[in-house]
Specification:
Elements: H1 4-25, E1 35-42, E2 58-66, E3 73-75, E4 82-85, E5 89-93, E6 100-102, E7 108-109, E8 115-116, E9 122-127, E10 140-141, E11 156-164, E12 185-192, E13 198-209, E14 212-219, E15 222-223, E16 236-241, E17 249-250, E18 256-257, E19 263-267, E20 273-277, E21 281-283, E22 305-307, E23 312-314, E24 319-325, E25 333-338, E26 343-348, E27 353-359, E28 361-363, E29 371-374, E30 377-379, E31 388-390, E32 399-402, E33 404-406, H2 412-444
Parallel strand pairs: 11-22, 11-23
Antiparallel strand pairs: 1-2, 3-33, 4-32, 5-6, 5-9, 5-28, 6-30, 7-8, 9-10, 9-27, 11-24, 12-13, 13-14, 14-15, 14-16, 16-19, 17-18, 19-20, 21-22, 25-26, 26-27, 28-31, 29-30
Helix pairs in contact: 1-2
């Protein structure tokens, strides 16, 4: 009598239950992928037995196949959590063993600034240089900068405003920065010196005649141009000449708009014309060293380009639509974020941000050939093929979603149904052995 068929059925049913149990156990594991037991029948036959219908000798587990389908993506409160929406694997390394691959995006920052997973393996990607430029090439462990960002002195100021053409020339003279009756409008902004020290730059605008305006400036209360007590004209920074009503100003920047600033003249500290431009972009005089509230001195700021090409003079209230500058104070790393292309942005306490690196992902021609290593990680094999690497969103590589994780793709309801089916299969194969035993017992008892 043959017990082989029933015994093999028990073995494969038991193996199937193990696979199902493993799936159920990892239903809550982020990045986990379900597996499926795949069976094959077995036959024993001689070479000369071709064409005959032999009775099979049972079943065997042909393969335990991994199912790399997309899992649901759930949002989290951690900015370092990352989920891959589409194809691809994160690449991690411990520095000694070959690179391993994972779909679990639960990453953290270690004491040295490296991005690591729960096993302490470092995430691979492209590092950025000190200017924030991504240096592509061979991937290396991503490390966030531990130092702050250096200050940057203001080198350009952009102003967009409208001078009210209906304003009258002030009758109260001479110009007094503390007396609003001596000027028409004023505004202010903060600029920065080479040490990142803030300088309060105040602008004062005085109408001198129809379509003509003068601009004065102070840095922390110190006139930008100061000749030691000479008349106010020696402190004049620039003057603006607008076209007559209905005229058109054309300049080298290509602007052609009624009311736009046509000519801008700058002056030295004697009140003499230093330069005249027609494109609305000129160089400010040196912003002098000044005293801060703490009593310390700021550094002079030189060579600041001022763009007022969008300044107009219309019969409307004085208004400022843009007042920007390029300087900033020093800052310390305050937070990080990751965009869909995998660029890790470092944000600093001074409001600046720059790339710190970019995550590199890997894809495989045959993901089912990957070898599970535990800890939500796989290693490549000959069957999987070599990894094809690239940045998120490029080609057929999936995009990253920060502050989110990919759940396990295990269908818990389906697995419970599969468990019941596997249980019945086990019972049926056990019944086969039981029946074979009863038949054998009958034969033994024959007299």
């Amino acid at each position: 009598m043959g017990f082989q068929q029933g015994l093999s059925g028990l073995n494969v049913s038991s193996r199937n239950l193990e696979v199902i149990g493993n799936n159920v156990a990892n239903a809550g594991t982020y990045g986990a992928k379900s597996s499926r037991a795949e069976f094959a029948d077995m036959y024993a036959s001689a070479l000369s037995g071709a064409g005959s219908n032999n009775v099979g000798i049972g079943a065997t587990v042909a393969s335990v196949s991994q199912q790399f389908t997309q899992g649901n993506i759930t949002t989290t409160n951690s900015p370092m959590d990352m989920a891959i929406n589409g194809n691809g694997f994160f690449q991690v390394t411990d520095g000694s063993k070959p690179t391993m691959y994972t779909r679990n995006g639960q990453f953290k920052i270690d004491r040295n600034g490296y991005i690591v997973n729960n096993q302490g393996h470092k995430l691979l990607g492209y590092q950025a240089d000190t200017r924030g430029t991504i240096v592509s090439g061979t991937a290396s462990p991503l490390q966030l900068p531990t130092s702050g960002i250096a200050p940057h002195a203001t080198d350009q100021i952009t102003m967009e405003m409208n001078f009210d053409s209906r304003q009258a020339v002030p009758t109260q003279t001479p110009l007094d920065f503390t007396d609003p009756r001596t000027y028409n409008f004023s505004t202010s902004q903060t600029v920065y010196d080479t040490k990142g020290q803030a300088v309060s730059l105040n602008y004062y605008y005085v109408k001198t005649s129809a379509d003509n305006w003068d601009m004065y400036a102070t840095a922390n209360g110190t006139p930008v141009l100061n000749n030691g007590g000479t008349p106010p004209t020696a402190m004049r920074v620039a003057s603006f000449t607008f076209p007559a009503s209905g005229g058109t100003a054309t300049n080298t920047s290509g602007l052609s708009a009624p009311g736009s600033a046509g000519t801008i003249s700058t002056y030295d500290n004697t009140g003499a014309v230093k330069s005249t431009v027609s494109n609305g972009i000129f160089t400010l005089p040196t912003i002098p060293a000044s005293t801060m509230a703490s009593g310390a001195l700021t550094q002079p700021i030189t060579g600041v380009k001022m763009d007022m090409s969008q300044t107009t003079e219309y019969g409307a209230a004085f208004s400022i639509t843009n007042l920007a500058q390029t300087g900033y104070a020093p800052g310390q790393l305050s937070s990080i974020s990751v965009d869909p292309s995998g660029i890790v942005m470092a944000r600093y306490s001074n409001g600046q941000s720059k790339p710190a690196g970019q995550v590199e992902l890997a894809t495989f021609r045959n993901p089912q050939g990957l070898q599970p290593q535990g800890g939500n990680e796989w290693s490549s094999t000959f069957a999987s093929g070599d990894p094809v690497v690239g940045t998120p969103g490029a080609g057929n590589i999936g995009a990253l979603q920060a502050g989110a994780l990919e759940e396990s793709n295990v269908d818990l309801t389906g697995e419970l149904v599969n468990m019941m089916v596997a249980q019945r299969m086990y019972q049926a194969n056990a019944q086969t052995i039981k029946t074979e035993d009863q038949v054998l017992q009958t034969l033994v008892n024959m007299r």
